[in-house]
Amino acid sequence: MPQIEEAQPKYLQIAHHIRDQILRGDLRPGDEVPSERQLASDWNVSRPTAARSLEALSNQGLVEKRQGSGTYVRGVEVNRRARELYGRARQTGKIYTAGEYAVITSAGWLDAPDYVADALGLAKERRAVHRRRVTSNQTGPITLSTSWFAPEMAQRAPRLMDPERIQEGTLLYVEQMTGRQGSYAEDRMSARTATEEETADLGLEAGSAVLIVHHVVYDLQDRPLEFAEATYPPNRWAFEQGYPLT
């Protein structure tokens, strides 16, 4: 008989909390993470548990221990996916970290592809509101993404139609304008060869592989609120929560 999973071990909960801070950009490469003593005090756990959480982060390649100094965030190239962006926006009111910026390359009405129409539940009207952006940092383009919304959003959240940046991110803006709260999301991922457009926007070599993520946000009534398609260049890591094998 299926059973409800037990809570994750304490050391993993601590490790995932710090990992999420790194992926959101709250902790940047070179920043020192809390010491074993500090983690033990903050989380009310033993020193060995705190040490194990830092070891787990080290095994993931996210931090490095410097003898006699402390533990520091490594300069790992990571894909900051939607949940990290949302988490940062909710916490700080800004979706991007210092050094990151987005250029909106198109916004307004477009005929939605079938997979977008299906995800948003567009039965007859195929026109949908879209926002397409290229996000870059000091190294160059890091993400190409397009957010899609149902047609009624054009009136309820009119800034979606404007190519100016929405500092807090599209989801928080839509929530504020419509009163519909994002409740949960689902991601589907696959890899394929970059299209010519993706190759140009991301500055890739022809024939490069890219990671594609289809991301759907649902509101409290389980209605689709946003569909987003993100394209990530190769050689950058995406992280998931750990999971038990039994």
State the main characteristics:
246 residues, alpha+beta, Arc Repressor Mutant, subunit A, Chorismate lyase, 2 domains, six-stranded antiparallel beta sheet, two-stranded antiparallel ribbon, 8 helices, 30% helix
CATH architecture field of the largest domain: 3-Layer(aba) Sandwich
The largest sheet is: 6 strands, antiparallel
> How many strand units?
8
| Overall number of domains | 2
Q: Helicity level, as a percent range?
A: 25-40%
Summarize the structure.
The chain contains eight helices and eight strands, in the order αααββαβαββααβαββ. The chain is of the alpha+beta class. The longest helix has 15 residues, at 10-24.
Question: What do you see in this structure?
Answer:
This protein has 246 residues and is an alpha+beta fold. It folds into two domains: 10-73, Arc Repressor Mutant, subunit A, CATH 1.10.10; 82-232, Chorismate lyase-like (Chorismate lyase, 3-Layer(aba) Sandwich), CATH 3.40.1410.10. The chain is built from eight helices and eight strands. The chain is globular.
What's the helix and strand layout?
Elements: H1 10-24, H2 36-43, H3 47-59, E1 63-66, E2 70-73, H4 82-92, E3 101-111, H5 114-120, E4 127-137, E5 140-149, H6 153-156, H7 170-178, E6 182-193, H8 196-202, E7 209-219, E8 224-232
Antiparallel strand pairs: 1-2, 3-4, 4-5, 5-8, 6-7, 7-8
Helix pairs in contact: 1-3, 2-3
